[in-house]
Specification:
This protein has 548 residues and is an alpha+beta fold. The protein has three domains: 216 residues, no CATH class; 150 residues, Oxidoreductase, molybdopterin-binding domain (Sulfite Oxidase, Chain A, domain 2, Alpha-Beta Complex); 107 residues, Immunoglobulin-like (Sandwich), CATH 2.60.40.650. It has eleven helices and 22 strands. The strands form five sheets. The protein has a five-stranded mixed sheet with strand order 5-4-13-8-9. Strands 6, 7, 10, 11 and 12 form a five-stranded antiparallel sheet that branches. A hairpin with a 5-residue loop joins strand 4 and strand 5. Helix 5 runs antiparallel to helix 6, helix 6 packs antiparallel against helix 7 and helix 7 packs antiparallel against helix 8. The longest helix is centred in the middle third of the chain and has 52 residues. The relative contact order is 0.09. The structure holds the ligand Nc1nc2c(c(=O)[nH]1)N[C@H]1C(S)=C(S)[C@@H](COP(=O)(O)O)O[C@H]1N2 and molybdenum atom. The site of molybdenum atom has 6 residues, from loops. Ligand MTE binds next to loops.
Amino acid sequence: MRGRPYGLLTAAAPGSEADRRGYIGKMRTTHGAWASAGVLTGLAGLAVSHAVASGLNIRESPIVAVSESIIRATPGSVVEPAIRLLGSWNKTVLLALVVIGLLASFVAAGLLARRSTWLPAAIFVALGGAALAALLTSGTTMTTGSMPVAAGFVTWILALNVLTEPLRRTAALNELPVERAEAIPEASALLATTRDLNRRGFLVRIGAIGAITLVATGLGGLLSRDRGRVQAAREMLKLPITPPVQPDGTKIGVDGIAPWRTSNEKFYLIHTAIAVPVIAPDDYALRIHGAVERELNLSYQDLVDRELTEAWITLNCVSNEVGGDLIGNAWWSGVKISDLLAEAGVRPGANAVLQTSADGWTCGTPLAALTDERSAMLALGMNGDPLPVEHGFPVRMIVPGLYGFVSATKWLVDLEVTNFDDFEAYWTSRGWSEQAPVKMASRIDVPDSGARVAAGRVRIGGSAWAQHTGISAVDVSVDGGPWVAADLGEVPHDDTWVQWAASVEVEPGEHRVAVRATDKTGLVQTSVERDVVPDGATGWHSIPFTAA
Ligand SMILES: Nc1nc2c(c(=O)[nH]1)N[C@H]1C(S)=C(S)[C@@H](COP(=O)(O)O)O[C@H]1N2
Ligand SMILES: [Mo]
């Protein structure tokens, strides 16, 4: 028995068996209505999640991230012929397939919503999980990546409920014993009115969710256009900087040690901003003021036109635990801060420079660290490219020898020459130290913690750092035995980390190897374990391994 179209809902066709038996109020909800609810729900979630992703400046919207992760996960033997076959259309075809897959899932979710609340939710959990996995493997952090996915997921669940509620009510109506409704005119009229109300309710809700979807789509487009514009401007930049040429001997040649030069993609990211500032070079302005003779106001071009300084500098985070990886070493290009401060003319009495980022984050750096011989700079370039947006584009500060939270302001827009007594910076007001030189540290990268290795001669290797002081020796000790001196890689100067490697003899069984460094003043790294708060962790890194 087929229903007659009645908007998106159908009534029993006149003259049908149902009609003859008096099923006047018996109106079915069509598959079409449930499927459309599913599709609109799906689109609403995608639009909201895209808007959030654009607002957070996540490079890829979840759909693109999923498509790219499909490319990554597909074996080359499949991808390569496909690219050859489809030529430049391959990305479009892939995106189209992803979209078709999504639409099919949305239709399925809508149809399943008729009988179950759990099955459509399970579909959305699966889709959200795939998007999250794709975003995370594309380099987005967990906190940032989970937000667009969570927003999309919540939209899916809410929209599906809102849209299917009138359909559900109509379906419930159909379960009522209404065979003899025709005989009672009041009942018949009531059924017709309820049916009509449900139908109108459904259409109103379709309209509302549709409007939300359109607004979110427009918003996402605007937000990502802004980021796209700045990205494009960044890519067009021709900075007078040189590409990184890694000095000979810095690589000690043990597989598994973190590369001496950290690529921009692998460089750790730490910032409090949820949506990172997106600043076009043309809109950039830096103010240098406070206790100075002459206030300086500089554009991006003003900085580019100055003499640029370039250096290898290892940056690390005070929150790096013993053995942790919140550290990276890059080739930075920028303007020496000491030159700018000399030009501004620092007045006596000042001992600090307060920096403010475009997102309002602040930090204070000792004036001395910015005026001595070290290459403290306003960096424009990282590893030969303009700074990546999330690493502070267009301008950030880099100061060798100090933790990032007291020196490495990203999206820098304001430098105030002042005194430590006169301000409290972002982290200082939250229990962290006012001043924080990097503490000497050493880390074991090879073997992996808990690894199985062949008994006999075992290679141990890793990195050590004491920025701006320099490392003079690294030693390892197995199971508390005597210290064995490691070989050190070369370094261009004392502002970078150094790779080290040692060989030890081990019997079969369980072992633990520890490492400690010595700096160029002769200070031996302390074994006293201290937490990262308030000014950096201390203690020896050690790892267990098994020799067989
Ligand atoms: N604007 C801004 N700059 C900032 C931060 C921040 O939260 N906001 N974090 C700082 C900290 S704690 C560190 S360790 C470094 C990290 O720089 P990276 O993300 O480029 O590795 O940036 C510093 N600069
Ligand atoms: Mo940090």
